[in-house]
Amino acid sequence: MEGLVLFNALVTRLLFFLHSLVGVWRVAEVKKEPRYWLLALLNLLLFLETALTLKFKRGRGYKWFSPAIFVYLINIVPSLWILELHHGNQYCGSQSEEMSQNTSIKEDFNQTLMSSEQTHGGDNLIESAKVFVNNLSTMCEKDWTLGLHQTFLLMLIIGRWLLPVGGTITRDQLSELLLMFVGTAADILEFTSETLAEENVRNNPALVYAILCIWTWSMLQFPLDLAVQHVMCPLSVTARGFPSLFLCQYSADLWNIGISVFIQDGPFLVVRVILMSYFNVINQMLVFFAVKNFLVVMLHLYRLVVLALGVRASLRRQPEVPKEERSSRVELAESGVPPGGWEGGAKEGLALPFRAPRPSDDSDPTP
Questions:
Q1: Candidate ranges 25-39, 78-92, 95-109; pick with highest mean pLDDT
Q2: What residues contact residue 228 under an 8 Å CB cut-off, 6+ apart?
Q3: Per the UniProt record, which residue ranges are transmembrane (predicted)?
């Protein structure tokens, strides 16, 4: 079992490293400057995180937070920023040129594969790999950027699935978390691809920076496991009033609501409303996802009110207890003594621990 945990931990981080390296290679190809290869040095953080995780956690994850996902975001997000800010990535040739280019790419690649199969030589395999890489580099820059965005979101979901579970999160909670990630991935992909594809948006650098900042902010939800962590509340919390009971009993729901309202759906709704109202950027998908964000925010706020009313109703159904007696009950509950003391607990029919009789002073201790 430990071997499988180490294998999953290493394979997942290797996938993160390779994908971030592809992003750096694409940036260097687009910018035509070798200095952008220095972005690959960010992977040193991934190597450091891997070494620390293997040493202190034996490959397993941490409670409430995934450092591997966070370091992967640090590695790949700068490359995607540079590709999106590069003005050449939204312009492609005509459709006929793209079709002829794709056809020639397929023909060249098929010829190299046939020649490598006939000769079975190591040199020909290297040559075929070089031709394949050259053909990839001639693809449209817009397609490359969109492909990196898509594979980036897929790597986050698959990587979180493959990473060993650690802390208090269970496999059931992990499946719930992955379903949440799949649901948010489509909205995040549309937010960057559709909005940045508009000409009015591309012509406004400040707006492009704002969209990329909101997109980066939304990525912070992926390293967190707070939305599915259910905390067991002690009995003494009930006597402390509404705020303590509400925060303790529905901590996972509150994190889920907060992440949606303040990290994804709320900021996305604000940006889309500004695009439609102020910048006059209106299309079918933009309107649809804006309505979707609005409904999600309203439903989360509605759920927040329902949970609060439920806790209020549960507290009202309990008998009124004076404040002094309530504080004493809290102290007794925390110390393990039942309300009313041992005698009171016996009168109420509570199961009390066995207490050995105390010998008298005049009794003989020896048998």
A1: 25-39
A2: 169, 173, 174, 176, 177, 180, 252, 256
A3: 7-28, 34-52, 64-83, 144-163, 206-224
pLDDT category at 15 given cuts 50, 70, 90 is very high
Report how far residue 260's alpha carbon sits from residue 62's, in angstroms, rounded to the nearest whole number. Answer: 23
Chain position carrying tokens 């409303």? 273
Q: Are 42 and 78 in contact (CB under 8 A)?
A: yes
pTM for the predicted model, two decimal places: 0.75
Count of other CB atoms within 10 angstroms of residue 51: 10
Give one word for 76, left, alpha or beta, with left for phi > 0 and alpha for psi -120 to 50: alpha
The encoded tokens of residue 250 equal 């529905």
For residue range 344-358, list pLDDT tens digits in order: 444 444 444 444 445
Q: Distance (Å, rounded) from C-alpha 123 to C-alpha 129?
A: 10
Residue ranges of the domains in the chain? 1-89+142-229, 230-319
Measured between alpha carbons, how far is 211 from 208 in angstroms, rounded to an integer? 5
Closest CA to 158 of 170, 166, 150: 150
Could you give the CA distance from residue 251 to residue 238 in angstroms, rounded to a whole number? 15
Q: Tally Cβ neighbours within 10 Å of residue 262.
A: 12
The answer to whether 138 and 100 have CB atoms below 8 angstroms apart is no
Highest mean pLDDT among 141-150, 158-167, 228-237: 141-150
DSSP-H helix ranges across the chain: 2-31, 43-56, 67-85, 95-119, 122-137, 141-162, 171-196, 199-202, 205-218, 242-249, 251-259, 265-277, 284-316, 323-335, 341-347
Among the residues of 32-66, which ranges form H helices?
A: 43-56
The span from the CA of 298 to the CA of 197, in Å, is 28
Structure confidence at residue 216 (pLDDT):
95
Report the candidate in 67, 73, 41 with the shortest Cα–Cα distance to residue 54: 67
Pull the structure tokens for residue 77: 């997000």
Q: What is the pLDDT of residues 201-219, one digit of tens each?
A: 888 889 999 999 999 999 9
Q: Report d(CA 178, CA 138) in Å as an integer.
A: 35
Cβ neighbours, 10 Å, residue 240: 13
